[in-house]
Amino acid sequence: MNTTNNTILITGGSAGIGFEFAKALSANNKIIITGRNEARLKAALDKLPNATGILGDVANEKDVANLVAILHKDYRDLNIVINNAGKSAPVYHLATETDAFTKASEEMLTNYLSVIRLNERLLPLLKKQKEAAIVNVSSIVAIAPGGRLPSYSASKAALHSYTITLRQHLANTSVKVFEIYPPLVATEFSAEIGGLVNGIAPSVVANDLVKGLEENNFDIRVGQTADVYQLYLSNPAQAIAALSGAEA
Predict the structure, then answer these.
(1) 111 φ, ψ to 5°?
(2) Which among 152, 162, 181, 232 is annotated as catalytic?
(3) What tens digit of pLDDT does each residue of 108-137 get?
(4) For residue 63, pLDDT beyond 60
């Protein structure tokens, strides 16, 4: 896939992995990033060439309607959507947690259901393009659940399953469907589970995404995620045990 001269939407593009995606792609593409925090969105835009920001939360119906209306009106050449926005992963134990339903509901909405809603509303635009792509940002825990992150793991597993089906259903269109699986990454998003100390640089994830797009590698397994995937194929129990203390 061509990684230049595109119009690219990156949700949650004002910080973390999303910002690194924008930085890696902004020199040779037109970038639109979204974010929930106005000050952080402005700060990100100050560091990005060829970028526009739209304030909003992908989990909020009104914000999504506003985003989609702007894209259909002003960015009719939109051809890549990177679904990166996500809910931070709370650490808790299902045997003792008293509010698992609320936590799971919030994570499922942001990490999974909001992706379905946005893709559905942007597909008519994407399918008009000669070449287009949807990138869903998954996780290592979509392969094997991280024991400390029960609802986050479940939301990413759901996203993984949905991505496979979406790819099948769009096989005869111009829209390619990619999934990228980061391991633990050094961002504020993963600070609670040791990401700032033990995670890989977010720029590594961004560089792997660009390479994966260029090579039409639809399953982009970053760093140790490739090893975990192979381990899961041969020994699922061992892979799950390995992730119990190293989730992303």
Answers:
(1) -85, -20
(2) 152
(3) 999 999 999 999 999 999 999 999 999 999
(4) yes
